[in-house]
Structure formats: C-alpha cells, structure tokens
Amino acid sequence: MIDLEGKVAIVFGLANKRSIAWSIALKLQEAGAQLAICYQNERMKAEAQGLIDELAGAEGFQCDVSNDAEIDTLFGQIKERYGKVDVLVHAVAFAPPEDLRGDFVNTSREGFRVAHDVSVYSLIALSRAAAPLMTDGGSIITLTYYGAEKVVPNYNVMGVAKAALEATVRYLAASLGPRRIRVNAISAGPIKTLAARGVGALGEMLKVHAEKSPLRKNVEQIEVGGAAAFLASDLSGAITGETIYVDCGYNIMGF
C-alpha cells in the first residue's frame, strides 16, 4: 500500500475532472497526502475551487507558471502554510492552437517560444522554487507523451516541446539528485482530456491504441494517477530521470 501520510503535494494543471491532474490529485489524497492545488488565474479560480472543495483538506493557490514573480509569491505562501514540500506535480502544457494545425514547417516563432516557455521552462522554474522546501528530499513528476520521440499527426510543436521536457527531466534529476530530490516523467497514452481534443483526430488515435497496444485497451486517467502516487512515494526511492510509460504497452510495438 502506498503511504503518503504527512507529505505535502503541490499539483499544477488541475483544470477539470477529465484532466489527468484530477486523477493524480485523487490518488495522492487517497494515499494520505495534504494537497495544495494551483490554478492559473482569477478566471479559472471558480472552476478550480469546485474541484478543490471535493478534495478533503486541499487548499487552492493562484499561480501563472509563466510569471516568475507569481511563482516566488506562491512558494512564499506554501512555506508559510505548510513549511515544506514533498511532492510537486507539473501537469502543465500549452501551445497556440494555430501551431497545432497544418504543416509543422509553418510553426511560428512565437508559437515555438510559448510552447517551450509554458510546457518546459515552467518545470525548471517550479523545481527551483520548490527545492529549498524539499528539506527531506522529494519527488517531482511531470507529464509527457509518445509524440516526444515519434511523429504524431497534429501534435507538431508540442511534440518538440515534450522532447525538450524529457531532456529537462534528465538534467534536473542530475542537478537535484544530491538533495535527494527525484525527477521523473509519466508518458501516458491518449486520453479524452480537454487538452487532447485540441490536437485533433483523437478518436482515431484512441482506436489505433486500443487495437495495437499489448493490453488491447486505452489507458484511463486513474491508472496514470496510480503511477504518479507510486513515483511520489518512497517505493520509487531509487528511480529518477526516467520516462515511465503508462500507455498499455503501445510504445513497445513496432507496427
């Protein structure tokens, strides 16, 4: 049994009940973690608060991960409220919709910058801010996708950003390892999230994954949440710098 009693977990990216972050939050709470849920801005507060209220003992905090001042303010609040951080979940990614359509060669300079700033650099910024509060070591978890290593139609600049994210996980793991802070990524298969719908052809992707994966099914959000709970726990104490596939085995298949 996974035991996270006494641990403080910060979750970024909880948008709605279809989001992977929601299932991760549920599993962390189920294991006993105290949750701090972060939402982007005042506009998103109302929906986020409804979800936070369903997570007993969880508290909400506002933070735009592309704003260093807001990150500093947030972790000042976290230090004052909890005194420490044990787990950080980075479930944040964004690219302008127009750069997820059409031909990849037409990716805009601004779209490329935004995708990497929000989806990749934010992990570095959040890790840097959280590390001083991880006084007993800790676990940092982010979300990636197979499009980081193979071409997925319509994934475009986000695939490049996810490749950078996976490299960032390795470099952060090496940088933070001496502080006993582990950094890992979960590569989930396609899931019917709001973000995934923005990629396009989701129905076809789900059909192919279910037909081709060894388990002959699609992954469910709660299964990703279980993997995150494992990575958050001491059971994964010697695992860092890894990309853990939670995709029903699809990634091992040649065709």
Automatic annotation (TrEMBL):
<keyword id="KW-0275">Fatty acid biosynthesis</keyword>
<comment type="pathway">
    <text>Lipid metabolism; fatty acid biosynthesis.</text>
</comment>
<keyword id="KW-0560">Oxidoreductase</keyword>
<comment type="similarity">
    <text>Belongs to the short-chain dehydrogenases/reductases (SDR) family. FabI subfamily.</text>
</comment>
<keyword id="KW-0520">NAD</keyword>
<protein>
    <recommendedName>
        <fullName>Enoyl-[acyl-carrier-protein] reductase [NADH]</fullName>
        <ecNumber>1.3.1.9</ecNumber>
    </recommendedName>
</protein>
<dbReference type="InterPro" id="IPR002347">
    <property type="entry name" value="SDR_fam"/>
</dbReference>
<keyword id="KW-0444">Lipid biosynthesis</keyword>
<dbReference type="InterPro" id="IPR036291">
    <property type="entry name" value="NAD(P)-bd_dom_sf"/>
</dbReference>
<keyword id="KW-0443">Lipid metabolism</keyword>
<dbReference type="Pfam" id="PF13561">
    <property type="entry name" value="adh_short_C2"/>
</dbReference>
<dbReference type="InterPro" id="IPR014358">
    <property type="entry name" value="Enoyl-ACP_Rdtase_NADH"/>
</dbReference>
<keyword id="KW-0276">Fatty acid metabolism</keyword>
